[in-house]
């Protein structure tokens, strides 16, 4: 397949792995921010072909994983409201709130629909004028333009029955929070290529400078990821603390001007709660007052935090890259994709789910893997 | 940053007392439903070793018996419709038992208001499919339900076949050293249905691989291929089928990812939707477990039958119940069963 095959070519992967091995003289810990990258690393076993000195740890960049309980519970409540059509991206449906998940609401009669684009939800609102249609607008800067477009379109058309439940987050503040934590292990970052495609790379320079570490903008195919790792290792070995763009085929330093303008038209920066990271200032997006009419929280009441019950789940530590899924006593035992104790086991981009699906149980650190 | 100990996830309330869609998705939840609720409720004089159908003896003749219900949306899709699916699906389940399909029943649950023209089209397509496999639809039933109480049309077929394979064809017959042959490329049916259902416009349209499988299986039997196990790769795809066989047979399987054919347009659709082609449904593909000495001949015979068959792996003597897949870059990973259906990813 043109434009994909070359980024999966086995010879290129092998030569990049060689180059990384040659460039590495000491141990380095590199975090890939994005859950899509975590998934690809595990799917293709890229961590297994790196020299043992390189440790990849997995960041909080799974949009499903970092959405806080309060919003999952609010989604469940709205979805169970008679007359509502609740629209969501597919992998949100299995995420547990404190009272079940959206699939459960659907099984009990709620009208929960998977959409592939927020504009599909707008279309559902258009064709069901007597029903309230709510879209669960979650994600990073990657989903923000399309979610903004949904609100923009609804406003332009005066679609009074459409609203968004917004839990939209931003990557750079999360990176700063991770690096500010006393237990941080991160020495270099692979930044998420899709996020930078939208927002550009300008926000990362000050972070690289303040925390003295390289940040490499990286894509999602095996060749992209290894090229990112190679650039990061070389920078670390040479003591360079720069922002490097290894995803130049889509990422421009200014980002996508049209997408940024649309985000700015619809959203404003606000404080947000992240699962695993807590409440971070200026780390998310909320609808501007000019779009308040399309805010599901204004229509159905605000999302409220519910005190979490005690749990053996360490997804907080996993989302911060402090622990590996293999270090969790519940992993593969009481916590499996059928019975997830936490979100990182639910989404295919979550580190625990990726480990469960792809990790050979017989290798590594003597962890006993309980197979159902 | 707050103390992360306070930020852990709540224990999820696991929904087990109502049926969810995932219970029908071909993954672990479906297996658990079958084991804990359905199979355990019935006494069975002949323990069922072949998951695609029951095999029993009547008057000295070994017969295979199977049934399947078809609930597909949309009813008509590129490459087939619910009628061809209902006949081919049951024909294929019998073929996977090494049995020649003979007679089928057909039951229709029709929603009030369903267009007569569409029903005629479905029935005509069933007759065409039946002829193609040399089977007869000999008995049936129709029920009409109130508008709103059915999704247009549901079809159930059951089938009886005569076992032609000379040795047992089931996971229990799988042996270390057997070669796993895949009859063709993966994922066409699942992607065709998803594209039609969700109105996804891809540049090239993918047609379902829906097709009858008795003829190619017959060719293998007649050539004297010792078929240890056959499995059609429907819901849950190749991965779920192999995991089921590995678990039932308590054997270990190793397959090569680079040997598995997937059409570029199917792969592109999978990449776009965040799906893994190994788990996407097929309706005209099967995996055959044959002795290594007959692997090349099997590939050749299936090729002669018009199928792009390839050897994709082997049964090893390793720990039972596992399927390992060697990736393109030298790393090996384990295949696991999905909980329910694959859900498209966010980004």
From TrEMBL, chain A:
GO terms for molecular function: 4 iron, 4 sulfur cluster binding; carbon monoxide binding; iron ion binding. One of its GO terms (biological process) is protein maturation. It comes from the Bacteria. Keywords: Iron, Metal-binding. It holds the Pfam family HypD. Belongs to the HypD family. This is Hydrogenase maturation factor. It comes from Luminiphilus syltensis NOR5-1B.
TrEMBL record, chain B:
Residues 51-163 form the PurM-like N-terminal domain. GO terms for biological process: protein maturation. Pfam families: AIRS, AIRS_C. SUPFAM superfamilies: PurM C-terminal domain-like, PurM N-terminal domain-like. Residues 175-323 form the PurM-like C-terminal domain. Belongs to the HypE family. PANTHER family: CARBAMOYL DEHYDRATASE HYPE (PTHR30303:SF0), HYDROGENASE ISOENZYMES FORMATION PROTEIN HYPE (PTHR30303). This is Hydrogenase expression/formation protein HypE. It comes from Luminiphilus syltensis NOR5-1B.
């Amino acid at each position: 397949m043109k434009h994909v095959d070359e980024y999966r070519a086995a010879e290129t992967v092998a030569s990049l792995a060689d180059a990384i091995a040659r460039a590495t003289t000491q141990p380095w810990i590199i975090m890939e921010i994005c859950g899509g990258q975590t998934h690809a690393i595990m799917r293709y076993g890229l961590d297994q072909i790196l020299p043992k000195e390189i440790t990849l740890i997995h960041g909080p960049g799974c949009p499903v994983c970092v959405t806080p309980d309060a919003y999952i519970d609010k989604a469940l409540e709205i979805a169970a409201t008679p007359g509502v059509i609740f629209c969501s991206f597919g992998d949100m449906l299995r995420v547990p709130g404190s009272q079940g998940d959206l699939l459960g609401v659907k099984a009990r009669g709620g009208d929960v629909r998977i959409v592939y684009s927020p504009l599909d939800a707008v279309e559902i609102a258009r064709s069901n004028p007597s029903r309230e249609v709510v879209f669960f607008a979650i994600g990073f800067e990657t989903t923000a333009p399309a979610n903004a477009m949904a609100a923009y379109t609804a406003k332009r058309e005066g679609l009074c029955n459409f609203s968004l439940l917004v839990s939209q987050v931003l990557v750079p503040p999360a990176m700063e929070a991770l690096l500010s934590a006393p237990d941080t292990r991160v020495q270099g970052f692979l930044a998420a290529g899709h996020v930078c495609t939208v927002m550009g790379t300008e926000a990362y320079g000050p972070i690289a400078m303040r925390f003295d570490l390289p940040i490499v903008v990286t894509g999602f195919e095996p060749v992209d990821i290894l090229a990112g790792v190679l650039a990061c290792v070389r920078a670390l070995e040479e003591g360079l603390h720069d922002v490097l763009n290894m995803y130049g085929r889509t990422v421009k330093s200014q980002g996508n001007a049209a997408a940024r303008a649309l985000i700015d038209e619809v959203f404003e920066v606000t404080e947000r709660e992240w699962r695993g990271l807590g409440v971070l200032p200026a780390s998310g997006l909320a609808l501007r007052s000019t779009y308040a009419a399309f805010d599901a929280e204004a229509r159905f009441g605000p999302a409220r935090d519910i005190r979490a019950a005690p749990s053996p789940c360490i997804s907080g530590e996993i989302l911060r890259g402090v622990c590996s899924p293999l270090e969790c006593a519940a992993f593969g035992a009481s916590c499996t994709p059928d019975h997830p104790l936490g979100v990182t086991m639910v989404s295919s981009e979550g580190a625990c789910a990726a480990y469960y699906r792809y990790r050979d149980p017989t290798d590594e650190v003597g962890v006993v893997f309980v197979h159902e | 940053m707050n103390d992360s100990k306070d930020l852990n996830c709540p224990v999820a309330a696991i929904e087990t007392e109502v049926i969810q869609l995932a219970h029908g998705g071909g993954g672990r939840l479906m297996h658990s439903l079958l084991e804990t609720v359905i199979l355990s409720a019935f006494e069975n004089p002949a323990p069922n070793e072949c998951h695609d159908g029951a095999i029993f003896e009547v008057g000295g003749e070994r017969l295979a018996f199977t049934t399947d219900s078809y609930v597909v949306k949309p009813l008509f899709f590129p490459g087939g419709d619910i009628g061809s699916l209902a006949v081919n699906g049951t024909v294929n389940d019998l073929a996977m038992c090494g049995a020649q399909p003979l007679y089928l029943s057909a039951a229709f649950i029709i929603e009030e208001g369903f267009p007569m023209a569409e029903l005629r089209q479905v029935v005509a397509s069933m007759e065409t499919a039946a002829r193609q496999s040399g089977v007869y639809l000999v008995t049936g039933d129709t029920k009409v339900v109130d508008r709103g109480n059915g999704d247009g049309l549901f079809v159930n077929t059951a089938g009886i076949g005569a076992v032609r394979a000379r040795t047992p064809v089931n996971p229990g017959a799988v042996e270390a050293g057997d070669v796993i042959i895949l009859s063709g490329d993966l994922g066409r049916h699942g992607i065709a249905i998803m594209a039609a259902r969700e109105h996804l416009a891809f540049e090239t349209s993918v047609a379902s691989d829906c097709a009858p499988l008795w003829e190619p299986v017959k060719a293998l039997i007649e050539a004297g291929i010792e078929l240890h196990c056959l499995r059609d790769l429907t819901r849950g795809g190749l991965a779920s089928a192999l995991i089921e066989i590995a678990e039932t047979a308590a054997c270990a399987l190793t397959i090569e990812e680079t040997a598995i054919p997937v059409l570029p347009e199917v792969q592109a659709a999978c990449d776009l939707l965040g799906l893994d082609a190994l788990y996407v449904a097929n309706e005209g593909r099967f995996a055959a477990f044959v002795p290594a000495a007959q692997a090349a001949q099997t590939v050749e015979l299936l090729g002669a039958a018009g199928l792009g068959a390839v050897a994709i792996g082997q049964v090893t003597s390793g720990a039972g119940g596992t399927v390992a897949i060697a990736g393109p870059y030298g790393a090996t990973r384990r295949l696991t069963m999905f909980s329910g259906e694959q859900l498209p990813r966010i980004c």
